[in-house]
Write a structure and sequence with these properties.
20% of the residues lie in helices and 25% in strands. By secondary structure, it is an alpha+beta fold.
Length: 540
């Protein structure tokens, strides 16, 4: 510790971040990535932008209007945060990345190895937040998947008590010189927003720009923090609008790596991983099976290249080489549409049991997908960004506040689940001479997976995503290059209702491990059918 806090302000606002993967990636403002510098501690500017990003990404504007987030940001910007820091070691990796002309360029990827069991504390001792702003901060922090680059997974919580001392704090320039002379700490430069009282003066100094200028709509500090780097570069600014450089003194870092045997990739169990899916041309949800099959192919190839025998990925018995028999304990690869616009934006990887170290290593390494050579049609590519991992007991009923921090509409607890990709019933309509229709088969599959008995299972003729109707016939449902005997080739859409909220994900029927038979955790705009016989399931 380099200083002891003064107690008793009564307005403490604090956030504690734990870096679950034990690493922090972030390049300081104005530095090139190849300089291999890491912003430590995370700057106030970065933290406030992260809060705003979560507010928009998880649609918290549905519960809190813009005035609430503005009061939150301005309340925090009015104070200069203090920090407590976990132990950290600076390190980097080198990569030769391909560029035009078949050449490569050397990239330095610098990051900090951070103790995952020790929190990074950020405290605003004099911040004034009203009740709604504090509630919004708590909701944002509970949903925050990462801080810095997407690999820097965090678990965060709001605190209202000061720690015993500071590891980083703002200082005046003259004071910084004295500290350096006495070799007390290290001096670092952090980007921070100007205070709300300074904002009118600062804004008046910036050119308003024409109607097409990205600065034309910047009227408040919140607007400045929302500006993208593309606007800043286009306007040729060397510092973001509303930002200032602050001098901090930081406890000296130990830059010497400590050799340690790696025992696991994560320090906590997880059975759900969520990837952000990005492509030049957005992928329509009707091609969810394509993404699921391509990602499965990539995982199998990566595991084989590493010499790993992973039935949890291949879905095959290593001795007989036949499909695994049992209750679907290998991974589900579930391409999903989080914002319900009809286009895929994430991929969930789920397994009933916690991921083993081999699977974790493969998941952490996977960054891109492309269709294999044998795939019909033109080549397609996707980028993957691992956003976070959770341990979710699918099918169980949450107790107390459990489940509130799972930021995924397909996993978090819900009482109603609605089809978003077609359910392909795996068995024929008759069993022992008795009718065994799709609704009966859904109930049977749920029972085998450990879900409670649903109150109702209703057929839907179509769902509506992004103002467009989708019925089961529009989806691609049979895998390429695999001969499949599926009783239901057309499939159907369904609505399941339970007596109490239960955890997802729910993916049932044929090809459920590749994205078919997936259910959204909540109501969707959908239309029912008169009776089950009118669904597109007949002929099974």
């Amino acid at each position: 510790m380099i200083a002891t806090p003064h107690k008793g302000s009564g307005h403490v606002v604090g956030i504690e971040f734990r870096f679950l993967a034990g690493k922090f990636h972030a390049t300081p403002w104005g530095r090139h990535a190849n300089e291999a510098d890491v912003e430590w501690p995370p700057s106030p500017w970065r933290i406030l932008r992260a809060l705003i990003g979560v507010y928009h990404r998880y649609s918290l504007f549905a519960r809190y209007d813009e005035s609430a987030v503005r009061r939150l940001i301005e309340g925090l910007a009015a104070d200069r945060p203090m920090y407590t820091l976990p132990g950290a070691v600076h390190t980097h990796t080198k990569h030769f990345m391909p560029i035009a002309g078949g050449k490569t360029t050397l990239i330095h990827d610098a990051f900090l190895r951070v103790a995952p069991d020790r929190p990074l504390g950020v405290y605003w001792p004099k911040a004034h937040l009203d009740g709604e702003a504090r509630a919004l901060l708590s909701d944002i922090v509970a949903l925050m998947p990462y801080l810095g680059r997407a690999e820097s997974w965090v678990e965060a919580r709001v605190v209202d008590e000061l720690p015993g001392g500071w590891d980083a704090m703002p200082v005046e320039v003259a004071e910084a010189s004295e500290l350096l002379e006495r070799a007390e700490g290290e001096i670092v430069d952090l980007l921070a927003p100007v205070t709300p009282s300074e904002w009118p003066r600062v804004r008046s100094q910036w050119p308003t720009g024409g109607r097409k200028s990205g600065l034309a709509s910047v009227n408040h500090l919140l607007d400045a923090l929302r500006l993208g780097t593309d606007v800043i570069e286009k306007e040729r600014l060397n510092v973001p609008v509303g930002a200032t450089h602050l001098t901090y003194v930081r406890r000296k870092m130990d830059l010497r790596p400590v050799p340690a045997r790696r025992t696991d990739v994560l320090s906590f169990p997880a059975n759900v991983a969520r990837f952000r899916l990005v492509s030049k041309v957005p992928t329509r949800i009707i091609y969810a099976l394509d993404v699921g099959e391509v990602m499965h192919t990539a995982l199998v190839w990566m595991a084989a290249r590493a010499g790993l025998v992973t039935p949890s990925i291949t879905g095959r018995d290593p001795e007989t080489r036949g499909p695994l028999r049992g209750d679907h304990r290998h991974v589900f690869i579930l391409p999903v549409d989080e914002d319900l616009d009809g286009y895929l934006d994430h991929v969930l990887v789920y397994q009933r049991e916690p991921f083993g170290p081999e699977l974790l290593n493969v998941l952490q390494t996977l960054q891109r997908l492309k269709t294999p050579d044998w795939w019909p049609g033109r080549e397609r590519r996707w980028q993957l960004y691992l956003e976070g991992m959770w341990l979710v007991p699918a099918g169980s009923v949450p107790r107390g506040e459990a489940g509130q921090g799972v930021p995924d509409a397909y996993v978090r607890p819900s009482r109603v689940f609605t089809s978003i990709t077609p359910y392909l019933h795996p068995w024929h309509w008759k069993r022992g001479g008795a009718k065994f229709g799709p609704a009966d088969q859904i109930r049977e599959e749920l029972r085998r997976r450990g879900f409670p008995e649903p109150v109702s299972v209703e057929a839907r003729s179509h769902i509506r995503l992004g103002e467009l109707p989708y019925d089961a016939r529009k989806f691609r449902k049979v895998r390429y290059g695999v001969r499949q005997d599926i009783p239901a080739r057309t499939g159907g859409l369904w609505r399941i209702e339970f007596a109490e909220p239960v955890y997802g994900p729910i993916a049932l029927g044929a090809n459920c491990h590749f994205g078919m038979g997936l259910f959204y955790g909540g109501e969707l705009d959908s239309v029912g059918v008169v009776n089950e016989g009118q669904t597109s399931e007949e002929g099974g």
